[in-house]
Specification:
This protein is globular. The protein is 4% helix and 46% strand. It is mostly beta strands. It starts with a strand and ends in a 6-residue tail after the last strand.
Amino acid sequence: MDVDLDGDGQPELVTGSGCPSTGVCVALPMEQGRFEKADMARDTGNIYAYVRKDGQVWIEAGQWAPDQPGAPHYYQYQAGKLLEIPRPSAT
């Protein structure tokens, strides 16, 4: 999936391992002519991460495990940093 995660007008390539069952998604932004790996689940300290798009783009991540579901957290890239945000509202 190509989606502009950081709002710079350039789409990042987002791929996954086990999506949607485990939802470990990886963004591959182009840096200096080559792809750089950004593991969104690991980078947010979570077990899973999904990219969501509904008028805006955000990352939903959490600690879900079959015996211990946890509340999701929400993130966006802002000024090159991955920041936690309040739950986005659907548009």
